[in-house]
Design brief:
By secondary structure, the protein is of the alpha+beta class. The chain has helices at residues 4-9, 28-40, 46-53, 60-77, 87-100, 105-115, 120-126, 146-162, 177-185, 216-224, 273-285, 331-343, 379-388, and strands at 11-14, 17-20, 78-79, 136-137, 165-173, 190-194, 201-207, 235-243, 250-256, 289-293, 298-300, 303-305, 309-313, 321-326, 349-354, 370-373. It has a seven-stranded antiparallel β-sheet, sandwiched between helices. Strands 10-13-14-15-16 form a five-stranded mixed β-sheet, covered by helices on one side. A two-stranded antiparallel ribbon has the order 1-2. Helix 5 packs across helix 6.
């Protein structure tokens, strides 16, 4: 995520509209020079490279673009130098020893180094090894090119804006399966409905990190993971209300097919390890049951609900149960989900709720259709809840 100060110089407001300062093919000549500098400084300190780049661009917007591109390259090639002692421990020990002694600097350094069983040179090298300027520039991957760097820099700008969103709406059509699955696996607070604009389209209404009370940084990273999946759709439009100004002023960000972010269209469809563990555990615990992944969506008015599993008793397949795994949540989101299920006439349905991703000010509602979990879903508890339900299926 870009620092807020850098993000504010990487976009501007025109009325209420947020206009990102995208990198374009016109920027590729200086991006090529920037890549060359990073490769030339391989093995040297980051501070030396930054000194070289400090006066590289003159205008305010050009400097912002340079800093964004540098953030992207730094993520690829900056590595902390090896340290014989953790830097914080080395500083604390050395400064304490110096304050308590009248011995020379060399004598104090030798004494503290001996206490760590390292040489004085190793201790001195470790003192500031955790500072950014001390990091070493490693070799850039061979695939880094000016056009790819521009696309990645634009993605950094857009994803940083999305991580400051209050709410997001995505309308997409054609091959939307990967997008919906990513939203579910990321555990986003998301409602899915049929799009009014196309028969093969959907609309995703998502809470933004700035609308949540807890886990906003973690949720923001999860929300940004949707952006690379947008290219799997034939066409998309994303609209988000984002806080860009000093005072939290909201602006409207629009992202559409053809914008220069080049999200990847060849990412494999994701699967959660959590799902795989539950599938294995349930089939071991539930003799006489079958488990089907990703059954058909349930329509509830204009909304669509996507179960993760259908649990089917072999003796009577008509009495199957549906199960959905909930990631991030608020009590209001769960109440709305339960209401939609009731309106759809779905009685045999369980929601497994991650207690570690509670994003609201109130605790989990009391409802027998809700099962708590943290790192692993208890398959035996799921089976016990199903078996204990009345024959009608309604709790």
């Amino acid at each position: 995520m870009l620092p807020h100060a850098l993000l504010r110089t990487s976009a501007h407001l025109e009325g209420e509209r947020i206009v990102p300062h995208y990198l374009t093919p016109k920027d590729e000549p200086w991006l090529a020079a920037l890549i060359h500098e990073y490769r030339r400084f391989a093995g040297k300190k980051s501070s030396e490279l930054q000194e070289q780049l400090r006066e590289a661009r003159s205008s305010q917007r050009a400097k912002a673009k340079l800093r964004v591109a540098s953030v992207v390259l730094d993520a690829l090639c900056l590595a902390r130098p090896p340290a014989a002692v953790p830097a914080k421990e080395a500083r604390a020990a050395l400064f304490r020893a110096a304050a308590a002694s009248h011995a020379s600097r060399v004598a104090v350094l030798n004494t503290v180094a001996a206490s760590f069983a390292v040489t004085p040179v190793e201790l001195e090298s470790a003192l500031f090894a955790d500072l950014r300027g001390e990091r070493r520039v490693s070799e850039l991957p061979a695939h880094v090119s000016p056009s790819r760097l521009a696309a990645n820099a634009n993605f950094a700008i857009v994803s940083s804006l999305i991580r400051r969103a209050v709410q997001v709406r995505v309308v997409a059509r054609g091959e939307v399966r990967a997008l919906i699955r990513q939203a579910r696996i990321a555990g986003l607070i998301c409602g899915v409905s049929r799009s009014a604009y196309a028969a093969d389209g959907v609309a995703l209404d998502l809470s933004g990190p700035f609308a949540l009370f807890q886990h906003s940084d973690r949720y923001g990273r999860a929300l940004a993971s949707l952006i690379p999946r947008l290219a799997s759709c034939a066409e998309f439009e994303l609209n988000a209300s984002c806080a860009l100004g000093h005072d939290g002023q909201l602006g409207s960000l629009a992202l559409r097919s053809g914008d220069p972010i080049e999200p990847s269209s060849d990412l494999p469809l994701p699967r959660r390890a959590l799902d795989q563990r539950f599938e294995r555990d349930f089939l071991r615990a539930a003799v006489g049951w079958d488990l089907l992944r990703e059954p058909l969506a349930i329509a509830s008015g204009d909304r669509l609900i996507f179960p993760d599993f259908e649990l089917v008793p072999r003796h009577d397949p008509t009495r199957s149960w549906l199960l959905e795994i909930i990631g991030f949540w608020t009590p209001e989101y769960l109440h709305e989900k339960l209401k939609r299920l009731s309106e759809a006439g779905c009685e045999r349905f369980l929601l497994c709720v991650d207690l570690d991703r509670h994003c609201g000010p109130v605790d989990l509602p009391q409802d027998p259709r809700l099962l708590r979990y943290t790192t692993r879903i208890d398959a035996r508890a799921v089976l016990a809840r199903i078996v204990a339900a009345p024959l009608s299926g309604s709790f």
